[in-house]
Design brief:
With about 450 residues, the chain is α/β, with parallel strands linked by helices. The chain is about 45% helix and about 15% strand. Among the domains are: about 120 residues, 2-Layer Sandwich (Gyrase A, domain 2); about 160 residues, Rossmann fold (3-Layer(aba) Sandwich). The model has no long low-confidence stretch (mean pLDDT about 90). Bound molecules: guanosine-5'-triphosphate and magnesium ion (MG). Guanosine-5'-triphosphate (GTP) binds next to α8.
Length: about 450
């Protein structure tokens, strides 16, 4: 997948562009000789000591003064010889330093190659590599802490106990198959109890992963309503910035706008949509079709209505549809209170069995706090209490689903008193999926997929 692992690789470890400092990172056998050549400093090179050195080009001309550090194998991120040159940030300096490294025999690293080498050297397992990616991509404080839990092999440890328990059942069943006559027969009650107990553990892992997904991705929250009701006004006010266009003309928003919002620790993926109405304008109609798609995916819907107007039959239909979806959290905002009140919260609550209705005059900042409180209350409600949250990549969630499915099939088998070898098939499948989850048993294709997501220089 990657070009030769024997090469010394180089890349910018910090984001490109203007900045105080840029770090050029080298890994491989030639890392130290190249750093020595560039800095003109032969020895001593104490590992992990920063040396302040001029950096010279091939003609001996100084192009920067930098801090250079060397990390001896195997005590480095990649487990190899590593050197880092902390030069001045900017568009050109770091690129020139990289060019000098290339001239001296290094090769440009491919995205994720440093972390891939760390994985090959056994410095980190695949689950840790994925957590490093989650950490880099984290958009909230919660997501950072969650990803950090898995660094240092946390996930493998957490799942180790479950794996041992499954292996214990496997050992018992295999012994029965191989030496059945010589052994005391297995107590079916013991088996049933173990399988039920571990099933509960797997279900709670799933719950924790869902909780984690919510922290990382945010609750899918969609603003809908008729045109001109004030959806974009609300979207802007919640985010505290004038991002969406707000005009007195109905049909202003067409493309969906999305942002992440954090309210009292609750992460929301907040989507502003085109107002729902019959429209002959083809562009607006496309926007409206997208609104309907977003509604299908939503976990929380904020229906924004102009409370100074009668409820239209469209909106009445929408409210009765949405209020019948059992999993959906629904908040109705009756806006434009300053223009009069034709829709009262109690009336709507009664008609549609709604729990959360707010009255606002968003243009004048009235009622915004109430909307925020209702969002937090709804966002937190109905979430099953679990011990914690688990940060899993999409790939890992998929494998955890595999564990669940194998276990469901096992439970059915145990209930139907299926033969031991049938039960063993499910148990082995669950183990395979668990190993895949922690990255102990993965194909090259999966490795490639994981590492290709990294940015250059990581
Ligand atoms: N009087 C009054 N006007 C408001 C209030 N909230 C929003 N408006 C105005 O209503 C108009 C429409 O607001 P938007 O936020 O663009 O409405 P929208 O629902 O996003 O509209 P579309 O994107 O066209 O679907 C703008 O002129 C706002 O300034 C309010 O509480 N009172
Ligand atoms: Mg709008």
């Amino acid at each position: 997948m990657y070009p030769s692992q024997l090469d010394t690789i180089v890349a910018l470890a910090t984001p490109p562009g203007l900045g105080g400092v840029a770090i050029v990172r080298l890994s491989g056998m030639e890392a130290l000789p190249i750093a020595q050549a560039l800095s003109g400093r032969q020895h001593p090179w104490e590992p992990r000591h920063l040396y302040y050195s001029p950096i010279r080009d091939a003609q001996g001309q100084i192009l920067d003064r930098a801090l250079v550090v060397y990390m001896a194998a195997p005590h480095s991120y990649t487990g190899e010889e590593v050197a880092e040159i902390h030069c001045h940030g900017g568009m050109v300096v770091a690129q020139l330093v990289i060019d000098l490294c290339l001239e001296r025999g290094a090769r440009l690293a491919t995205p994720g190659e440093f972390t891939y080498r760390a994985y090959l050297a056994g410095k980190i397992d695949l689950a840790e590599a994925e957590s490093i990616l989650s950490l880099i991509e984290a958009r909230s404080k919660g997501a950072v802490y969650l990803a950090a839990q898995n660094l240092g092999g946390g996930l493998a440890r957490q799942l180790g106990g479950l794996k041992d328990s499954i292996l214990e059942i496997v050992a018992q069943l295999e012994a029965q198959l191989d030496y059945g006559e010589e052994l005391e027969s297995l107590d079916p009650l013991w088996l049933k109890e173990r399988v039920t107990l571990l099933g509960r553990e797997i279900a709670s892992l799933w719950q924790e992963a869902e909780e984690g997904r919510l922290v990382v991705e945010g609750l899918e929250t969609v603003l809908v309503g008729p045109p001109n009701a004030g959806k974009s006004t609300l979207w802007n006010k919640l985010l505290g910035q004038e991002r969406a266009l707000v005009t007195p003309y109905a049909g202003t928003t067409r493309d969906q706008l999305q942002e992440y919002l954090y309210l009292e620790g609750l992460a929301l993926h907040l989507i502003d949509t085109a107002g729902l109405r019959e429209s002959s304008d083809p562009v607006e109609s496309l926007g409206i079709a997208k609104t309907r798609e977003a509604l299908e995916r939503a976990s929380l819907v904020l229906v924004v209505l102009d409370g100074s107007q009668e409820l239209s039959s469209d909106m009445s239909e929408l409210l009765s549809d949405l209020s019948q979806k059992p999993q959906l959290k629904l908040l109705v905002v009756l806006n434009k209170r300053d223009c009069g009140v034709l829709l009262s919260p109690s009336d709507l609550q009664e008609r549609f069995g709604l729990t959360h209705v707010c009255q606002t005059a968003l243009k004048w900042d009235q009622g915004l706090e109430g909307v925020k409180r209702a969002i937090v209350e709804l966002g937190r409600s109905g979430r099953e209490v679990s011990d914690g949250a688990l940060s899993l990549s999409q790939r890992q969630r998929q494998t955890l689903l595999g564990v669940r499915q194998a276990w469901d099939s096992l439970v059915k088998g145990v209930q139907a008193e299926a033969p031991w070898d049938c039960l063993l098939l499910d148990l082995h499948q669950a183990l395979r999926s668990l190993n895949e989850l922690t990255g102990q048993d993965v194909s090259n294709e999966i490795l490639e997929r994981v590492f290709s997501k990294f940015c250059l220089g990581k």
